[in-house]
Amino acid sequence: MKRIRKGDEVIVIAGRSKGQRGHVLNVVNANRLLVENVNMVKRHTRPDPQRNVPGGIVEKEAPIHVSNVALFNPATSKGDRVGVRTLDDGRKVRILKSNGEAVDI
């Protein structure tokens, strides 16, 4: 089970964007994420009249390693580690390690 999924609110705990918060836009592969307004890079693009792309310098999100982010805990307003617990009915749910609260039910 993935510990961080698309749509989760995460906080960056290491790197150039440390301390920034955002929602996961996309899980690129097993260990890279796209987080909104985090790890912004400048991309120089050529104009393409057929696709109606003007060209110039475009700012976009670059993938960030999953080890550099933590799930945001609204109760403590900090990043938190994620664990997995099996419920009585056999379903697996993600829990926050600090208070044992279920993330998704």
Written account of the structure:
The chain has strands at 9-12, 21-29, 32-35, 40-45, 56-61, 64-65, 69-73, 78-80, 82-86, 92-96. The chain is mainly β and 105 residues long. The strands form three sheets. It has a six-stranded antiparallel beta sheet, with no helix packed on it. It has a two-stranded antiparallel ribbon with strand order 4-5. It starts with 8 loop residues before the first strand and ends in a 9-residue tail after the last strand. Helix content is 0%, strand content 47%. A hairpin with a 2-residue loop joins strand 2 (21-29) and strand 3 (32-35). It has a domain at 9-80: SH3 type barrels, CATH 2.30.30.
